[in-house]
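Handover notes (outgoing to incoming on-call)

Open items:
1. Putative 4-hydroxy-4-methyl-2-oxoglutarate aldolase: sequence verified, structure written out, both below. Nothing else pending on this one.
2. Nothing else urgent.
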Amino acid sequence: MHHLGVVHRTIDRADPAAVEALSRFGVATVHEAMGRLGLMRPYIRPVYEGATLCGTAVTVLLQPGDNWMLHVAAEQVRDGDVVVAGCTTQSEDGFFGELLATSLRARGARGLVIDGGCRDVDDLRRMDFPVFSRAVSAKGTVKATLGSVNVPVVVANALVNPGDVIVADADGVVIVPAARAAEVAEASARREAAEEGKRERFRAGELGLDLYAMRGPLSELGLTYVD
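Putative 4-hydroxy-4-methyl-2-oxoglutarate aldolase structure tokens:
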């Protein structure tokens, strides 16, 4: 177990070339290519339409109703990072808003994923600072209790280690372990190429029943057609 009140300044980030490669793919593709792993729970949603992000995780463990550690984390952010925040217990307060977004953007952050609340949504949309959160809430927070920065953290049922790759879009949020980033990017590219072949066949009117050779197994299970 890690202790509260710890900031790890040195983390191993995923290879930038692998992060760049992963940024070309959607969350569904990456999740499937990785063996159907890594998804956060679907209650984490973009706070405005069209938000997407891809970057390396700077992790934060927050206390409920307290955003102090987001300010502590800002100092650890480098260009290309995504701040990923979990909470010691469920909280939907508005931990994050336009001022913190301005601070994070100045550090080169690509966005925020938080298992908590977020506010100033119209400002974030205008800034095009992508946030994926559990809730939108105007409720403010205090700065009174210690959490930690750059420790392993569970966010919406997904384990996130500092330096992992975070990909988020309208379909959800997926975490790619740093060590697997290049391999998963290659698998994603192969999957997209295969899907393009299927897409062409579907466009030509072919049915999934034939494309996926489903008729035999369906018949064996006793599916019958009645006129």
